[in-house]
Structures are given as structure tokens and as C-alpha cells.
Specification:
The complex is a heterotrimer of chains A (about 80), B (about 220) and C (about 725).
Chain A (H helix, E strand, L loop, with lengths): L1 E8 L6 H12 L12 E6 L5 H16 L5 E7 L2
Antiparallel strand pairs in A: 1-2, 1-3
Chain B lengths: L1 E6 L6 H10 L3 E6 L10 E4 L20 H10 L4 E4 L1 H8 L6 E3 L7 E9 L15 E8 L3 E3 L6 E6 L10 E5 L5 E4 L17 H12 L7
Parallel strand pairs in B: 1-2, 1-3, 3-4, 4-11
Antiparallel strand pairs in B: 5-8, 6-7, 6-9, 9-10, 10-11
Chain C lengths: L7 H4 L4 H11 L5 H10 L2 H4 L4 H4 L9 E3 L6 E6 L2 E9 L1 H6 L1 H17 L4 E11 L5 H21 L3 E8 L8 E11 L14 E6 L34 H16 L5 E4 L4 H13 L2 E5 L12 H6 L5 E6 L4 H10 L4 E8 L3 E6 L2 E7 H6 L14 H6 L9 H9 L8 H4 L10 E3 L6 E4 L6 E8 L1 H6 L1 H17 L4 E10 L6 H21 L3 E7 L3 E2 L2 E2 L3 E10 L17 E5 L11 H5 L13 H14 L5 E4 L4 H13 L3 E3 L4 H5 L6 E5 L11 E7 L3 E4 L2 E4 H16 L2
Parallel strand pairs in C: 4-5, 9-12, 17-18, 24-27
Antiparallel strand pairs in C: 1-2, 2-3, 3-6, 4-6, 7-10, 7-11, 8-10, 9-11, 12-13, 14-15, 15-16, 16-21, 17-21, 19-20, 22-25, 22-26, 23-25, 24-26, 27-28
Helix pairs in contact in C: 7-8, 7-9, 8-9, 9-12, 18-19, 18-21, 19-21
Classes of the chains: A alpha+beta (about 80), B alpha/beta (about 220), C alpha+beta (about 725).
């Protein structure tokens, strides 16, 4: 099954990269922009046919490896 | 003959580059990235560091700085333009040099002396060196791994043992005319034996000589 | 995390006595924001309440001291109009919670302490202690800490030029990360953390304020501070080296243009500290408008704004006439600013939020009036048993033990660590990582600064007084072999739980040891940091003082000694008192699998002075000098062989003498007759040559010891 994991820094944790990119966008004239956050997306193929079980498995991967639970939240989406 | 050493927020090798150029008899001045004119200068160096924190991609934000349009103009006019480390990354992002720089093969920052070999002596940074000459200067980068899907670049210097996995073992790359070059190791850190090597002198002397011969190749 | 119950002050970690003191100062019950400010300012971390009475023992005066302990960094005069600023700090707990960010923000904090004084930070050293690397958690911690130091230090543009790593079980649940920073400045650029005179304007520079660092103290996890949920209070501060780099350049420009009266960085205790300390030092009050503080998150309460430890922030105190120019400099460097208040006559710090006064307290009382504790101390009962243990390596083949030592990750090459750090920026690093002391030339002068940072928890566990004194002597010898004379010390005292009398005894002994050694060398302590509560499940770490010693080489040797300059035919000399067979606390004892025990050899103040002077003089004459410490003479000679790519023979290889770490000893390698060595201290022990290292009857190929030494740390880490 195709799985997409979005890992984002928890909203209350500072995101220096997002802040810097936002400033650069403003410099280029895109002043209507705000709230820039730099997230990461991980795509996986996982063997299995039970979407619920696959989702649980990938969530475990997130907790153990893919995300840093101290700083980050994650969202797992099983797409097919 | 004056060299503009451009400083972006996050640049950190500007004083070292000025020191090295002056030690070799050159004249250099630090120029802030928001300046729009380089009319008073004969050449440009984009020094190393972490412009804009290396955020998004190394050099990606710096290429939009106001000063970069004049850097481009000078490059197109055949004036000497050299990017060192982070400056090399900017020149690639700006399209003034071919290819791009990605994370080192071993995914770790590398700070140590490396041995280089001169491949092409018809560039702004190698014209006083001889083909096959070995130079030993420090490397100091995380994104030092040069890739060029078009395979179009001219390699000026290559690594003897390729520490970061660069395509063609490239340590320094130049444009077709040879007046624009980027080098990943730091020649300015290799100009005095007390610091471990003076092999970098010939590279910066080549740059200074190019200022005199401007334009290097008629447009 | 459990929510503390009981009255508000207890939830904030304060005792009933401390609460009564506040009521006494204010003449009334404190408001919530006031209580929050006292809780952080009177915390162990900020007030040194358990240690302060003992730290007064340190010698702090010398003619060259410009600023002693108590300011953001110590400052000493190094001649010709130049000053050096130095400081050391721990980031132990944050590094355990999140090793990358914990170590990174440790670097950021120590840099701010130094550039707050008007200095440009020129170098960093890091001291890392984790548990043994056979446990995955410790490998993860070490990799994370090293990446964090590299990530922040490299990007902020300050080279990391030295340090140490030590491994011991006692650090498994409580790693230690201590970072030292050195800066230099012209005399006229010195800036102090003072608020100036009434009318001076307080300008907050740098990153927007968020809830960073608040939950960590477990103190706001209570309902008394309105309704923010605990999840919204991250205890992890995230470092932004890019912002810090801009802040450094902006502040240096402000100093150069003489646009500020005083500066204070925002570290622990955030705004509470950056307002009360400068006002307290000036003997004045201040009015602060919290509504003006630029922030990253909405809905922050007054206590949160006052306690936030968001990184990369500075408070500048500016005369009204200079305000526009200050804001213009900040704007050039793309730094956010907020005019947050004004210095007032009288003692009170008045804080307003949402149009009302949320705190009005005497500024100096926050900074200075924390009730000091006189915690009981007692010599540990177990010490006698530990001292009676005997270690002998007489039945061990010296070459076998040497190979084991070189293959130890704490002794083997540190290249895996220091090659991840930019250690060459600023073109000053004459002698960098992987040697005794670092040597940094000062361009445009004949001078060089030398620094050594040293710690040894095992030695200090066995005898904190002797152990701590030996650290100072070792650091002094390390800078001497680089050609420098000792000038000043900073210390980072990492200890267990001060509520235990044994831990307090260890602290007091340590302070005595450092003080005695500094007095013997005639050098002052100009700053320090105390980190208590380094314990896991009630087990304390070894007492682990870390000493950072600054030396001055004036002039710098034209060709300083290097381990790599040994050549075929040169003589090997051992200089210093003859070693005993005491291996207490030594690397040999540890690597041989013996229990930590015995009483370490006492140092000798007279010997220390003599060898330090001798080594500093020899540094101008001979090609190789090397302090004898971890692993003794055998490891010292092996390191010279590896660096020079040449073998050696040691003639009379008595095992104890090969591996003794007795103090005040160093190795000289030179052509015969290059320098006169004092007959009562110097012994010729061998000769350089060949492609193997011989200790008595045993021999090891140079390639074998080189590989063992190179691979020790990478293979222990599995990289």
C-alpha cells in the first residue's frame, strides 16, 4: 500500500527555517504570505492489505524513527 | 585593482578572504548584499559561510539578493568572479555555473585538509598553476558534493581522493570562458605554513592576476 | 510529568522559607507574575544558592583581571590594548531531552555570554560525557550532541577548536555537555550588563518570544497561571544559528559605534533576568511594557513572557538620543527589535501587561537576595573502602595494555568528532583539536592565546580535592607545551544532588582543590557555572568539575611544538617527578578492567610551577612537547609516533611507569642537545626511529597502533 507521512514541527516549536523563507518571500514581493512552515513528507510502500493495520504500523515507525516526538507531529495517510 | 567580497547575512569567511587577498598584495573591500552597484570593482568573490542559514537550499535565497544582478553583469562581461564554498553554491543556484551541490556522500560535515589536482589551467583560479600540480587546502562543508546532470562543466581542480562524492571528483568548476569559477575547499585557509599549508596561494594569485588581465576572454 | 500539588510557590519549586522572604521584601503577598520571576531568579541555576558561599573561596583577583565572576563572562587584559573574554556553561539536562537542540542551544547561549561583553567570539571548546557506547542510547546521544554543536557552531561562524569526550556508566542517564567560549575585544569596547542611568531605553533585539523552555522547569505546569495547557509549553528550545550570527554582527557594530550603555543576553530566566540584573547592577529600577515584546505565539501570559527562554535574544540599554541609530543597525542586519521599557530612578522593576501592573518588585532583590543555603556536607563513608583498593599492571604485557588503551574511544583519535566542526575559521588555529592545548594566534600581533579544557570524573570521584587540583595543573601544562603561560581559569562544576551531604562535600573539596592549584600558579578564577542534580534514579554522577584555562604566549613560538614533528634519530625525554606505581583513577586501571579505586597521587604546587615554566620555555626551542596524562608515557609516545608517522623505542618499560598518570610530567622529543634539560627532572627514556613502537621486550607495528587509534571511536559508534 502507498503511504504518505507528513512530519511537521509542532506549532509551538520555533521553526527558524520557515521564518527565514517567509522573510525571503516578502523580500521578493510576496508580502501577502505568512505562516510559512517547513515540513517533511515521506513516501513509503508497505506490504499489507489492511489499511488500518498499515496505518498503525507506519505510525509506530514515526514514533520510533521517522519523527522526533520531542519536536514534531506526524500525519499518516494510506492512499491506496 | 579591487575585489568586492560580498557579505550576506550568515556569511562568515569574508574577513579571512580579505586578509588572504591583502596578504598576497591584493586590494579588497567587504560589500553588503543589499548594494546594487559594483562599478568600483574589478572582480568579485562570494565567500564561504551559511548565507541565510542555508535554509531552503544552500545559496537559494542569496541568489535573489540585490547585489547579484551586478555580479551577473560582471560575470557576463568577463570579469573574474569566484565563489568559495557557500559562494560556489550560490553561483550554481544563480545559473552562473553548471550543476548543483548536494549533501556529502557520507552525510557528515567534513573539515580537514584535502589534496587537489589541477586539471584545467585556463580558469580564473588556476591560470598560474600547472596542469597536474597538487595543492593541499582545507575543505569545510556539508553540501560539497557537486553533481551536474548536463555534464557540461569545466573542472578546474579535482580531489585526489573524493571525500564528498563529487561527480568527476570536481573540487572547482568554471564556466566556458573560465572567468567564473566555484571552488568547494578554501584557498584562503591555505596561504601560510603556520596554519598547515601555503598551497592555496597559487589559486588566489591566479585570481588577482586575472583582475589585471580583465577581461579574461573578450566577450 | 506529575503536577505538583500545594500552594502556588511550591508548584514553582520554591520552599516556604523562600516564600516568606518574598513576602518580607514586598510587605505583601506576591502577584502571580512576581512569584514566577522570583521562582526563576532564585532557582538553583540562577542564584547558586547552594554553592555560592563555597564559591567565595575561589581566588578571583590578579592585576590583569578586568571583569571577575558575576558578569556574563570573565575578562582579562592580554596587553597592547586587547582583552580576552571567557566563559563556560553546561547544557546537561536539555542535551538529554533532545541532544541536537540541547547542545546547539548550549553553544548559542555561551556565545551570547561572550559577545554581550563587547567581544567577538573567536573559538569554542566542548566537553562531552556520555555512558558507554555499547548502549544504543549513548551512541544516539553522542551523535546528536556532536551534530548539534557542529550544526550551530559551524553555521554561526565560530570555530570549535578543541575539547574532550569521556565515557562512564554514571553518565548513562545524565550526559554532560559543557561548552567554553573565548572572545577578544579592544579595551575601549568593553560593555557591561548595566542599565545605565534613568531615562535609558531598554531595546529587545532578536528572535520573537515564544513559550520555549517554560515547561522544562515543571513550574508552570499548574493552573495558577491561567489556562494554557501543558502541551503548549515546549521545554525544548530550538536554536537558530543564522539569527545568532546576525545578532553577533549587529551587536559588534553597535559596540564599535558606541551606541549602547549596557547589554544583557536573555538566557535562563529570560526577561526576568535581563531586566532585574542590569537594573540591580546599576542600583536603579525599570519600567517594562510586556505588550511591546514581539512574540511568536499568541495568548502568552505575563509569567510566560517573563520566564520564556526563547533563544537568540539580547537586551540593549540605549540613550534616547541613540535609539534611531540602534534601530537602523538592527534593521540593516535584519533583526527584529522592540522598545520594551525605560530605566527609572528608585529600586523598583515595574512590569505592565495588558494595561495593568503585573509586577512591582525591587530589581536587586530578584538578582541578589535569594536566601543562600548552608547545606550540610559530610565525607562519604565509602571513601575509605575505595581508597584501600589496589591496582597493579605488573603482570600485564605493556604492549598489550597500550593497544587496548589506543583502541579506547576516549583515547583514540577524536577526528570523527572534530572533523565535523569547522575548526579553522578566522585563520587563527595554529594548533587545533587532537593535541594538548589549542593555540590561536592573534593576527597583527606577536601573541597567541592558548586554551585547554580538562575534566576527569573518575579521578575526582576518588579524591575531589586532588582530582580538581590536578585538572588545573594539567590544563596549565597543556597550554605551556603550546608555549603559553597560564592567565585565568573558568570552571564548570557538574555535580549530583546537593541535598545529599556527600555531594556537598565533593563540591567543597573540589572548590578547595581548584582554589589551591590556582593560588599555586598565581592565576584567578574569572567565572564559572554550577550544575547540580545530575542524577539518575537517585544515583549521582561522579563529581565532574571541568576546568577551562586560558594562557598567553607572548611572543608566540615561531615554530610551536607539534606532535607531528618527530624525526628518525631524535631523543625522547621524560620531564617531571619520577612516577609512582599508583594507578588510581587512571585509564590503565579502567581499560585493564580493574575496579575504580585507590587514592590518586597528590599534586605538588612547587613542581607544578616549575614544570609549567620549563615547558613554556622549551616550546620556543624543541620540535615536540606532549603532556603526559591519559594512558601515561606509553600513550603519549604512541600519539607522537602516529602523528609523525615514525616508530620509537622506549628502553626501560616498567609497566607502572609506562602507564602512570602522576601529575606534572611531559615528553620532549628533540635532536640531541637542542635544549638543556634540568638533570633532576629529566630522564632520557628512548629514541625515535623505525616503523614500530617498542616498549621493553614487546613491539607493535606502527600501522597496527595507528589503525587501532584511528578506528577506536568510529568502530565503537558503528559508523
Amino acid at each position: 500500500m502507498k503511504v504518505t507521512v507528513t512530519i511537521n514541527r509542532r506549532p509551538e516549536i520555533a521553526d527558524p527555517e520557515g521564518t527565514t523563507v517567509e522573510r525571503a518571500l516578502h523580500d521578493l514581493g510576496y508580502t501577502e504570505t505568512s505562516g510559512v512552515r517547513m515540513d517533511r513528507v515521506v513516501h513509503l510502500d508497505v506490504k499489507g492489505d489492511d489499511a488500518v493495520a498499515v496505518k498503525a504500523l507506519v505510525e509506530e515507525m514515526c514514533r520510533r524513527l521517522l519523527a522526533n516526538p520531542v519536536l514534531e507531529d506526524f500525519e499518516v495517510e494510506v492512499t491506496s | 585593482m579591487r575585489t568586492a567580497v560580498i557579505v550576506f547575512p550568515g556569511t562568515n569567511c569574508e574577513h579571512d578572504v580579505v586578509y588572504a587577498l591583502e596578504a598576497l598584495g591584493g586590494e579588497a573591500e567587504i560589500v553588503w548584499h543589499r548594494e546594487t552597484s559594483l562599478d568600483d570593482f574589478d572582480g568579485v568573490i562570494l565567500p564561504g559561510g551559511f548565507a541565510h542559514g542555508d535554509y531552503l537550499r544552500t545559496g537559494a535565497i542569496a541568489r535573489f539578493s540585490p547585489v547579484m544582478s551586478d555580479v551577473r553583469r560582471m560575470a557576463e562581461n568577463g570579469a573574474p568572479v569566484l565563489g568559495i564554498c557557500n559562494g560556489f553554491q550560490m553561483l550554481c543556484e544563480a545559473g552562473l555555473l553548471p550543476g548543483a551541490l548536494i549533501a556529502n556522500r557520507d552525510l557528515s560535515f567534513i573539515c580537514r585538509f584535502v589534496d587537489l589536482e589541477v586539471v584545467d589551467t585556463d580558469t580564473v583560479i588556476t591560470r598560474l598553476a600547472s596542469e597536474g600540480e597538487r595543492v593541499r587546502i582545507p575543505l569545510n562543508s556539508y553540501e560539497g558534493n557537486w553533481v551536474d546532470p548536463s555534464a557540461g562543466g569545466r573542472v578546474a581542480l579535482r580531489y585526489v581522493d573524493n571525500p564528498n562524492g563529487s561527480q568527476a571528483r570536481a573540487a572547482a568548476v568554471a564556466n566556458e570562458r573560465g572567468n567564473v569559477a566555484g571552488i568547494m575547499p578554501h584557498p584562503e585557509r591555505g596561504i601560510e605554513d603556520i596554519l598547515g599549508s601555503s598551497d592555496g596561494q597559487v589559486l588566489l594569485e591566479s585570481f588577482l592576476q586575472s583582475l589585471v588581465d580583465y577581461p579574461l576572454v573578450p566577450a | 510529568m506529575t503536577t505538583p500539588t500545594g500552594p502556588a510557590h511550591q508548584k514553582l519549586g520554591m520552599t516556604d522559607d523562600e516564600y516568606e522572604s518574598i513576602v518580607g521584601i514586598l510587605g505583601r503577598e506576591p502577584l502571580p507574575a512576581e512569584l514566577a520571576m522570583y521562582s526563576v531568579m532564585w532557582s538553583e541555576h540562577c542564584s547558586y544558592k547552594s554553592s555560592r558561599r563555597h564559591l567565595e573561596r575561589f581566588p578571583t583577583e590578579a592585576p590583569w583581571v578586568v571583569v571577575g565572576p558575576g558578569e556574563n563572562a570573565g575578562v582579562v587584559d592580554i596587553g597592547d590594548g586587547w582583552l580576552a573574554a571567557l566563559r563556560i556553561e553546561s547544557h546537561n539536562h536539555p542535551s538529554f531531552v533532545e541532544p541536537y537542540q540541547g547542545a546547539a542551544t548550549g553553544v548559542g547561549g555561551i556565545l551570547r555570554d561572550v559577545f554581550t561583553m563587547g567581544a567577538r567570539p573567536i573559538a569554542l571548546w566542548d566537553q562531552i560525557r556520555v555512558g558507554p557506547l555499547d548502549q544504543p542510547k549513548n551512541r544516539y546521544l553522542l551523535k546528536g550532541v556532536v551534530s548539534g554543536i557542529a550544526g550551530y557552531g559551524n553555521a554561526v561562524g565560530v570555530p570549535t577548536v578543541g575539547g574532550e569526550i569521556e565515557f562512564d556508566d554514571c553518565y548513562s542517564g545524565n550526559p554532560l555537555v559543557n561548552v567554553m567560549c573565548l572572545g577578544i575585544l579592544r579595551k575601549e569596547q568593553l560593555v557591561l550588563g548595566t542599565a545605565g542611568t534613568p531615562g535609558t531605553i531598554a531595546v529587545l533585539l532578536g528572535k520573537a518570544t515564544g513559550r520555549d523552555g517554560i515547561g522544562g522547569a515543571s513550574i508552570l505546569a499548574s493552573a495558577s497561571f491561567e489556562d494554557e495547557s501543558e502541551e503548549k509549553r515546549p521545554s525544548v528550545q530550538v536554536g537558530d544559528p543564522f539569527e545568532e550570527k546576525k545578532l553577533i554582527e549587529a551587536c559588534l557594530e553597535l559596540y564599535e559605534k558606541s551606541l549602547v550603555v549596557g547589554v544583557q543576553d536573555l538566557g535562563a530566566a529570560g526577561l526576568s533576568c535581563a531586566t532585574s540584573e542590569p537594573a540591580g547592577r546599576a542600583g536603579l529600577g525599570m519600567r517594562i511594557e510586556l505588550d511591546a515584546v514581539h512574540r511568536r505565539e499568541s495568548g502568552m501570559t505575563a509569567p510566560e513572557l517573563l520566564m520564556s527562554e526563547s533563544q537568540e535574544r539580547m537586551m540593549a540599554f540605549v540613550s534616547p538620543g541613540n535609539l534611531d541609530r540602534v534601530l537602523a543597525v538592527a534593521d540593516k542586519w535584519e533583526i527584529e527589535t522592540a522598545v520594551v521599557g525605560e530605566v527609572k530612578p528608585g529600586p523598583n522593576l515595574t512590569i505592565r501587561h495588558n494595561g495593568r501592573v503585573v509586577a512591582e518588585v525591587p530589581a536587586a532583590s530578584l538578582a541578589n537576595d535569594a536566601p543562600l543555603l548552608d547545606r550540610p556536607s559530610a565525607r562519604p563513608g565509602w571513601l575509605d573502602d575505595v581508597w584501600s583498593a589496589q591496582t597493579s599492571v605488573n603482570d600485564v604485557e605493556p604492549v598489550d595494555l597500550l593497544l587496548k588503551l589506543l583502541d579506547d574511544p576516549a583515547i583514540g583519535s577524536s577526528a570523527w568528532v572534530h572533523e565535523q566542526y569547522d575548526h579553522m575559521l578566522f585563520l587563527s588555529t595554529v594548533i587545533g583539536p587532537g593535541s594538548d592545548g589549542s593555540l590561536l594566534r592573534m593576527k597583527g600581533t606577536d601573541k597567541a592565546l592558548a586554551v585547554s579544557t580538562d575534566g576527569n570524573g573518575r579521578l575526582c570521584y576518588l579524591d575531589p580535592r586532588r582530582g580538581a587540583a590536578r585538572l588545573v595543573y594539567e590544563a596549565a601544562l597543556n597550554v605551556a607545551v603550546a608555549g603559553a603561560r597560564p592567565l585565568a581559569v573558568v570552571d564548570n562544576l557538574n555535580f549530583g544532588n546537593p541535598e545529599k551531604p556527600e555531594v556537598m562535600w565533593q563540591l567543597i573539596e573540589t572548590v578547595e582543590g581548584i582554589s589551591g592549584a590556582c593560588e599555586a600558579l598565581g592565576i584567578p578564577v574569572v567565572g564559572g557555572n554550577v550544575s547540580f542534580y545530575n542524577e539518575t534514579d537517585g544515583v549521582d554522577i561522579h563529581p565532574t568539575p571541568v576546568v577551562g584555562l586560558l594562557g598567553l604566549a607572548d611572543p608566540m613560538p615561531s615554530s610551536p611544538p607539534r606532535w607531528s614533528q618527530a624525526n628518525e634519530g631524535m631523543e625522547i625525554w621524560e620531564v617531571g617527578p619520577e612516577p609512582t606505581d599508583n594507578l588510581a583513577g587512571s585509564a590503565a586501571q579502567r581499560v585493564a578492567g580493574e575496579a575504580l579505586g585507590g587514592r590518586p597521587t597528590a599534586p605538588s604546587p612547587e613542581r607544578a610551577r616549575r614544570v609549567v615554566t620549563l615547558a613554556a620555555d622549551l616550546a620556543h626551542l624543541v620540535p615536540v612537547l606532549h603532556d603526559i596524562s591519559d594512558g601515561g608515557l606509553a600513550v603519549a609516545v604512541a600519539e607522537i609516533c602516529i602523528a609523525s608517522g615514525v616508530g620509537a623505542r622506549i628502553n626501560n618499560a616498567e609497566p607502572a611507569a609506562m602507564f602512570s598518570e602522576d601529575p606534572h610530567r611531559f615528553v620532549v622529543v628533540m635532536e640531541s642537545g637542542t635544549a638543556d634539560l634540568p638533570a633532576d627532572l629529566a630522564t632520557r627514556v628512548g629514541i625515535i626511529g623505525g616503523d614500530s613502537l617498542s616498549l621493553g621486550s614487546g613491539t607493535l607495528d606502527l600501522s597496527i597502533i595507528t589503525n587501532a587509534w584511528r578506528q577506536a571511536l568510529p568502530s565503537a559508534l558503528g559508523v
